[in-house]
Amino acid sequence: MVRCPISEKSGSALAAWLRGLDAAGLERVLAARPDVVSPPEPRSVGELADRLQRQASVALVLPRLTLPCLQVAEAVAALPGVSQDGLADLLEATHGERAHGLAAVLEALADRALVWPDGDGLLQMAAPLGNAWDAPLGLDAPLARLLAGANSDELGRMLARLGVKPSANRKELRRTALIDHHSDPARVTALVAKAPAATRKLLERRAHEAPERPGSIVFGAPRTSPEPGEPWAVERGLLIRDRHRYGPARMPAEVALALRGSDWHAPFTPVPPRVRSVPAAASDVDREAAAASMAFASHAVSVLGVCAAAPPALLKTGGVGARELARIGKAARCDETPVRLVLETASAAGLLARDGDRVAATASYDTWAGQEPAAQLAVLLRAWWALPLTSGGSRDEDGKALPALAGAPPCGGCVQARHGLITAASQLPAGEGAASSADLGVLLGWLRPLVDELPQDTTPFATLVREAELLGALALGAVSPIGAALLADDAEALADACRRLLPAASGTARFGSDLTAVVSGTPSARLLALLDSVADRESAGAASVWRFGPGSVRRALDAGLTPDALTADLAAVAVGPLPQPLAYLIHDTARSHGRMRVVSAACVIHGEEPALLAELAAHRKLTQLGLRLLAPTVLISRTPLDGTLAALRSAGYAPVAEKPDGSVRIERARRPRAANPLPAPRRPSAARSRAQDADARTTDARTAVDLPSLAARLRDAPQDVPEPDPWDNRPYDSDTEEIIAGHARNLPFTDVRQLAHAVNDGRAVTIEYVAASGNATVRTVSRIELDAPYLRAWCHLRDDERVFTISRIHGVMPA
Q1: CB neighbour list of residue 685: distance below 8 Å, 6 or more residues apart
Q2: What is the chain's mean pLDDT, rounded?
Q3: Other beta carbons within 10 Å of 87
Q4: CA separation, residue 82 to residues 104, 254, 485, 565, 590 (Å)
Q5: pLDDT in tens, 128-142
Q6: How far apart are CA 457 and CA 477, in angstroms?
Q7: Domains of the chain
Q8: CA–CA dist 57, 59 (Å, integer)
Q9: 214 pLDDT exceeds 80?
Q10: pLDDT in the model for residue 38
Q11: What is the predicted pLDDT for the residue at 667?
């Protein structure tokens, strides 16, 4: 990110406007730009103006602007200092609905401190906002900026060609006279009408095309040759040649607008696109959302259960590839889209983490797995709402499959698209839903025009709409109670909505004579563990189905269950008596279970039936074990115990493993868990430990900012609070602040305070850093320790500890 310095003129103009606001107006600004009130709170209006004009702060608010807000901001960027009336003429918004729309947009931009009126009735804008467009409205810079390098003689010759006699031989007066002349569209059009044909053709073409930015001076490179008719226009200031750069002559914005004619207006769309709607009763929306969220919760339990039992492998390039996704989907009985959505949200929620070359469940997963379905869904919904990507984005621009959990850079536009989608659906009348998801996508494009759209979508934001429907946030084209709670950012309302839509976990199953078990809704963790241990799952969703077989029953017996205990456990969760075929299956399997035992000698097989052991010794498929009959009831194997067990079971037998003491070895599935991805924190000093303990006791009080009180304090604060000079003896808020200020010569004082606060309070911050190579990067760092002239911190980009030179930090923002 290239640092955009805050101009003194722009900063003072914003501070002056902020001081003129009443308490309610100032509070609206603070509420719309929450990053500027992060601790430490600004102490003066001047410091607040500096924070509001940080480039990174302006970049945070831009993706949340609607299309008309961006259109108005672009028009103001094209014509700095334009009046509100002039802007209305440019946008064709002088009366009626368009005029009301313009007034509302200007109010919204002012509430965000992006565009505001000054004391002369002209519109000013935050300095970084002007850099959002290379050529706003396809116009070049205004004449005043292009004439900055012209000398008095050049200006005099231009005026002489125009027939204008300046009042004095002064550069400023001559420049003002030229600007006044070209600011009148009638004079410009009359002048161009007298131009040679080649000049008129050139000027008409240049007026309607985006300007070509001049490049830097290259030694030995020739200056661009003038186009036919260009000298006549340059002599009269209709085109301006840059004396210090190479490239084509540039057309001032005033000249281009005059040549475009009075019928040309800048684009302005104050009215949102119409969304076709259909009736959608609240009860129908709730029912549809409940079915979708119930199915997703069930899929989540299945997918994460598969990952916990057999962690998916990562590709060498990173992420879970198509083969592993297909394996998980087959085992969990769901499509690829829900698998991707579950993996991404679970990873964001801390239920999955990288463990070497695999992705394994964490200890948090065990806690999550024991919760009710409503609580499980709420965890994944909160993660999805803040997920910095669109998990359904399975294809790139070339149609190539993308891995899941690939660690892509955070995508702020994806978050805003998600929020904008639910916002768009919430604007529909009560009892109605969008007739087409494509209409919602078009409205989303109006609400959030800067958000990212996936190349795989055939209709606007189709993948995002599908995700919201899978989770139950959207149903029948309307916002469900889940979506409304997410939009309100209300965790308690979200939990209530999930409890209302999702029934409690089912603790019972219906067993059929066809050796199946059916569970309606989401099975409880206990029921799920029981059925998974004794049967094979065939399907999952609103209803899950398991099938019993000799192999699955033998698996339960291998885990140490007796046939009577297994029958009792199943009867305890059955709706009605167990079918006879299931009871017969369990006891028939149990009769053949354990008829021979395997002990490691490398290893020994023994049993009470000589005929059975003789059969094993003569079995062709078991010759690779190297079996040898030592006695009528004893076999020895050259294959280790686990390999012998696997071979016998593969051949259709049911052996059990035996411990050296003669007792049966209970076989339980291993539960791999990922370790903490971050190393243990460094041991803090005693003084810092005491400071962090004190901070921990006041975290809640610090986190919630009282905006009315802060607005009142800023209004009552002195108008000019001088910044401390690191070389004098004026007091600082802390020693950390004074030390950082002594080394951070490239930081404004408000950023010094932010960085010092992060060091003292152990907070994460985002810094703009210029390395020794000259490359500028943006890093989020935490666990910062001051070791002047350096900072030692954990770098989230590199997932490692790094050392940063304080003097190379050029900007600080809350993380």
Answers
A1: none
A2: 84
A3: 21
A4: 18, 12, 42, 84, 89
A5: 888 888 889 988 888
A6: 18
A7: 277-501 (no CATH), 510-585 (no CATH), 595-653 (no CATH), 706-814 (2.30.30.100)
A8: 5
A9: no
A10: 87
A11: 75
